[in-house]
Amino acid sequence: MEALHILIVEANPHLRSLLGWHLQQASYYVHLSASIKQAKAAYQQHQPDLVIVDSELPDGSGHELCRWLQRQRHPLILILSAQTTEADVVSGLKAGADDYLGKPFGMQEFLARISALGRRNRLSLPTQVSFGALRIDLIQRRVHYHNELVDLTPQEFSLLYVLVQAEGVALSRMELLQRAWPESIDNPRTVDTHVLSLRKKIEQDPQQPQLIQTVRNVGYRLNLVYLMEASTGASGTTRGVATGGPTSKMMMPRAQSI
Predict the structure, then answer these.
(1) Of 65, 132, 195, 244, which has fewest CB within 10 angstroms of its CB?
(2) How is 102-159 classified by DSSP, letter by letter?
(3) Could you tell me how far CA 70 lies from the centroid of its own chain?
(4) What is the pLDDT of residues 150-169, one digit of tens each?
């Protein structure tokens, strides 16, 4: 099953980026907003499965946003707040939150709360995705191609995974920026740079790419036919996916307080 799409609505830019980075490393799709206005626009565009809401936002209360979300598709909601009295927690839950986490908190607890919310909604991540000769381990964030480990940066891994998720459908540069990058970036040339780097690591001939194809006037796509034909020793005419929790074996940084 596809990874959760998570919208982070947090006024503190450092915390917003930090949470987004850790969630991306755990193979979630991440979208970032700093205010209620931005969050509403991002929600309408991305339709996330889970929204993480700061209780105090520059243009209003996080509870206000929770009530607005309740009238939408009703995503899962996690409130983050420095206000941790029983009355504060009860107020947040009554506003529509599914869980409430007091600041400061440890990163491991935060990731565990996200995992638990995903299970509550019966949404889980695959632990491994295979297309012919390409195998992606979502727990260890490792990629093997023709049984050889490909050393990718975190951003290259995310880009490749988004292309795999599209299952051969061409994605525009802006779509790739929205899905594979945690921060909002408007420069499509960023995608070209990372695709070039990815091709150098995974293509037999980066100058004549067969796996990651350029689709003129659109963007990029993964060539699944070539991938299956290039498979060596794999039964692999069909995709194999095993499901499991997104952080069950993840090697995460030491717990830290925020």
Answers:
(1) 244
(2) ESS-BHHHHHHHHHHHHHHTT--EEEEEEETTEEEETTTTEEEETTEEE---HHHHHH
(3) 23
(4) 999 988 988 998 898 888 89
pLDDT at res. 253:
33
Task: Give the integer Cα–Cα distance in Å for 153 and 25.
Answer: 11
Check: CATH 1.10.10.10 for 5-120?
no
Residues in the chain: 258
For 67-84, what is each residue's pLDDT tens digit?
999 877 778 999 999 999
The Cα 185–Cα 132 span in angstroms is: 32
Indicate where the chain has its CATH 1.10.10.10 domain(s).
125-244
| Two structure tokens written together for 51 | 């929204």
Q: Could you tell me the pTM of the whole model? A: 0.52
The answer to whether 49 and 120 are in contact (CB under 8 A) is: no
What Cα–Cα distance (Å) separates residue 219 from each residue in 149, 160, 172, 192, 204? 27, 14, 4, 9, 21
> What are the phi and psi torsion angles at 52 (to 5°)?
-100, 120
